[in-house]
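Take one protein record:
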Amino acid sequence: MTEILIALALGIIAGVIDAAPMIRQEIPRVSVLFVFSQWVFIGLLIPFVDWDLAPWIKGILIAELGMVPVMILTFYRNRKKVPFIIMIAAVLGMGIGIAGSVFIG
């Protein structure tokens, strides 16, 4: 149970890091909530996937795959933001992967 709470905390932290700057912009609140919840789910997933990869690579791959729906929705509204989403997903996914391996194992 403790491992799940740690993974949940990692997802919440990543969600806050990604969604907080969006609050100041003129972005629909539902979009901010969507991005936040997406990171909560990704944070719950990364530490428990058992792939034979370094934790940071596993984190990047799963985060990029998990953010595909966000990228698709963003692509049709503002294509210039997709590379930023890719970069943020890589950084936050790497962070969750490393933190998950340290705190969860």
About this structure: The mean pLDDT is 94. The longest helix spans residues 2-23.
